[in-house]
Amino acid sequence: MTNIDEAVKILKEGGVVALPTETVYGLAGSIKSQAAIQKIFQIKERPFFDPLIVHVNSIEQAKSCTHHWPKCFDILAKEFWPGPVTFVVPKNDSISETITSGLQTVGLRMPDHPLTLKIIQKLHAPLAAPSANKFTKTSPTDYQHVKQEFPDLPVVNGGKCQVGIESTILGLENNEILIYRPGMLQKSDIEKTLKNHQLDIPVTYHESPIAPGHLKHHYMPKLPLILQIGNQLAKDHIPNNIFKNPLYWDIPDKPTMAARQLYSKMRELDKESHSCLIFKLKEQYLVQEDFSGIVNRLIKAASYTSPKNFSNKT
Ligand code: TXA
Ligand code: MG
Fold first, then answer.
1. 302 near 227, Cβ under 8 Å?
2. What pTM value is reported for the model?
């Protein structure tokens, strides 16, 4: 286990450390170290076209990474930071193109975890950090998850992540706020805050084609995962041998619980002695806004859905 001062020392020397946040654990390097940024991509086996999120410990520090900090994001950051929301803004020279994969924008987030905020404060620099898992695999939401996947990596133990799925990512294009990736901060929360500040800006779901979190398959466990919507399992399109020895999980009714447990269940149940995981979701949750982030992750993690074609209205 790595303590705060050891973590700061490693980061100052251009190393990488896994750190807790309220969403998922991140694999962090100082934005000032090109070597650290390259190590992050190597360790994750992440393609260089997938940009990293930069973590800050204040709005002031966020402003130091961009040449344009929009008023609407300032209002939202004041309301929801530290918290599970990332703002994509134009980058300035303090952010290298290795971090942003050549993009001229950068995703900024102030995570809600005292240990990581302390580390950023002691380092005097923001941290670039993707989720601390191999590319396309399930994000870690507990210290043990990271240790199991990367036994040699220094990891700061912050216990279990309270939110459990990755942040909501927002962009601003043509005076419209776009939700590039849904999360536990909801569209209606954003709209309500803007309205309270007399800002009339539309908010729409718009998966970013440049964000590989939006690849069709992502967040996947090793066993085939079947997302069962409703009570009936439609099996026609699924190979029969998969059903030899399934493990079931009923997705909790409370969205905060469902999100908090989702990735741990994927890891905990992902045992070779079983043939597949069947995660059962009540149909009404497909249209419930506070399940939108959870449903988004489930669809990307699933090898099969039942029914095969369904309409996802969130
Ligand atoms: O909650 C989170 O966001 C966690 C914790 C560690 O903060 N981080 C996380 O990072 O989920 P990562 O790298 O696993 O996912 C970040 C997503 C990626 O899909 C990436 O493509 C997208 O954010 N992204 C990063 N910078 C972007 C940009 N400038 N424009 C559009 N998408 C961007
Ligand atoms: Mg990730």
1. yes
2. 0.95
Q: Which residues contact 25 (CB under 8 A, 6 or more apart)?
A: 18, 19, 131, 132, 139, 140, 141, 142, 143, 145, 146, 155, 158, 161
Cα 196 to averaged position of ligand 2 atoms, centre (Å) = 32
Index of the ligand 1 atom closest to the CA of residue 50? 21
Given a cut of 70, is residue 314 above it in pLDDT?
Answer: no
Say if CB 20 and CB 161 are below 8 A apart.
yes
Take atom 13 of ligand 1 and give the residue whose Cα is closest: 130
Q: What residue ranges line ligand 1, CB within 6 angstroms?
A: 21, 23-24, 26, 50-53, 84, 86, 88, 100, 103, 105-107, 109, 111, 129-131, 166-167, 169, 180, 208, 210-213
Express each pLDDT in 191-228 by its tens digit: 999 999 999 999 999 986 655 555 677 788 889 999 99
Section 257-279 average pLDDT:
92
CA atoms of 170 and 167, how far apart (whole Å) = 9
Cα–Cα separations (whole angstroms), residue 253 to 112, 259, 294: 25, 10, 12
HSE at residue 23, side-chain half, CA atoms within 13 A, is 29
